[in-house]
């Protein structure tokens, strides 16, 4: 199977209007009521984030795009051949996602992955309510996400073997410094030039996601988003910085889902035929003080566990 892009994410919310307000007032998305929930648009597609009513606030599923019906049917056959249990989408699930056909499976760490083909949209021009002119999407997909993977090796193996992902680079997270526990992170790409569409974090995350990332096409838009974050009282999770691996200049802020949104500019694209896998020993070239948000939460969790 060869996944072309990350097309959408499904998020469950006890109060979807919180996502409408955050999406429009802070992130600059446009929100629309759709069958089964709300769609947050960032381009010509009907939605990239779909919010559905639920009993808890959390990340629910990732939507991986295949190019054609033939690829989709071949993908289902491959899942079956490799012993992966999958379930076909219901009509209501297809209606919310605006896709032709979809099936889902759960990886060894409990993350739900949806493969689909074909999308439906009226191709109305994206108009941000706060004036964001453009998000970087298209063939690169809508961005990336970081998912929890306590069953790290088996989850990585399944996604590479079944969905055809490749590992772009790795990082070892040491929350208590040298000599303390180690948590690996694999940054993984699919069949496009975005440095990573998915990263796996070796640990538990109650919200089902560490963060999502969206990319704008001008650094000024990152600054304006920071201003909107402050004006709306949204919690900062990491200060402005530039990542070592994908060169994204970004900051992180909390969403109503209990996970963060990375808002960035300038991510590099990769020619995978000329790429060599590496381990980066630092998260960022500069900035990205995670102690203001992620670090504070992590230390509180460690203290509670002690």
TL;DR of this structure?
With 306 residues, the protein is an alpha+beta fold. The protein has helices at 16-27, 69-81, 91-97, 152-163, 219-231, 294-305, and strands at residues 5-13, 30-34, 37-41, 49-53, 58-66, 87-88, 99-106, 112-119, 144-148, 166-173, 183-189, 198-201, 211-216, 236-243, 249-254, 260-265, 278-279, 284-287.
Secondary structure layout plus pairing:
Elements: E1 5-13, H1 16-27, E2 30-34, E3 37-41, E4 49-53, E5 58-66, H2 69-81, E6 87-88, H3 91-97, E7 99-106, E8 112-119, E9 144-148, H4 152-163, E10 166-173, E11 183-189, E12 198-201, E13 211-216, H5 219-231, E14 236-243, E15 249-254, E16 260-265, E17 278-279, E18 284-287, H6 294-305
Would you give an account of this structure?
The protein has helices at residues 16-27, 69-81, 91-97, 152-163, 219-231, 294-305, and strands at 5-13, 30-34, 37-41, 49-53, 58-66, 87-88, 99-106, 112-119, 144-148, 166-173, 183-189, 198-201, 211-216, 236-243, 249-254, 260-265, 278-279, 284-287. It is an alpha+beta fold and 306 residues long. The strands form 2 sheets. Strands 17-10-11-12-9-13-16-15-14-18 form a 10-stranded mixed beta sheet, with helices on one face.
Report strand %: 25-35%
Structural class based on helices, strands and sheet pairing:
alpha+beta
Number of helices: 6
Low-confidence blocks of residues: none
Given the C-alpha coordinates, what overall shape results? globular
Mean pLDDT: 95
Number of strands: 18
The ordered string of helix (H) and strand (E) elements is: EHEEEEHEHEEEHEEEEHEEEEEH
How many angstroms does the end-to-end distance come to?
Answer: 44 Å
Q: Whole-number radius of gyration?
A: 18 Å
Helix content: 10-25%
Strand order of the largest sheet: 17-10-11-12-9-13-16-15-14-18
Major sheet size, sense and barrel closure: 10 strands, mixed
């Amino acid at each position: 199977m060869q996944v072309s892009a990350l097309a959408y994410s499904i998020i469950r919310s006890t109060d979807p209007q919180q996502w409408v307000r955050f999406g429009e007032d802070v992130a600059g998305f446009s929100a629309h009521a759709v069958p089964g929930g709300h769609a947050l648009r960032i381009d010509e597609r009907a939605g990239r984030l779909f919010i559905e009513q639920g009993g808890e606030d959390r990340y629910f599923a990732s939507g991986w795009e295949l190019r054609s019906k033939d690829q989709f049917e071949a993908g289902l056959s491959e899942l079956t051949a490799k012993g992966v249990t999958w379930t076909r989408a219901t009509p209501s699930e297809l209606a919310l996602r605006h896709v032709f056909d979809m099936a889902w499976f759960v990886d060894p760490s409990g993350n739900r992955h949806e493969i689909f083909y074909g999308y439906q949209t009226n191709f109305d021009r994206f108009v941000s309510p706060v004036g964001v002119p453009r998000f970087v999407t298209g063939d690169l997909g809508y961005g990336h996400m970081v998912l929890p993977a306590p069953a790290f090796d088996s989850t990585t193996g399944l996604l590479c073997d079944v969905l055809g992902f490749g590992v772009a680079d790795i990082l070892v997270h040491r929350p208590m410094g040298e000599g303390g526990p180690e948590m690996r992170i694999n940054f993984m790409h699919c069949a496009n030039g975005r440095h990573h569409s998915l990263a796996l974090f070796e640990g538990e995350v109650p919200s089902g996601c560490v963060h999502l990332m969206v990319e704008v096409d001008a650094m000024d838009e990152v600054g304006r988003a920071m201003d909107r974050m402050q004006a709306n009282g949204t919690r900062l999770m990491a200060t402005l910085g530039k990542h070592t691996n994908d060169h994204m200049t970004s900051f992180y802020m909390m969403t109503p889902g209990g996970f963060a949104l990375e808002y960035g500019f300038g991510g590099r694209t990769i020619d995978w035929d000329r790429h060599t896998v590496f381990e980066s020993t630092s998260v960022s070239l500069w900035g990205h003080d995670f102690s203001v948000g992620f670090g504070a939460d992590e230390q509180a969790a460690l203290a509670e566990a002690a």
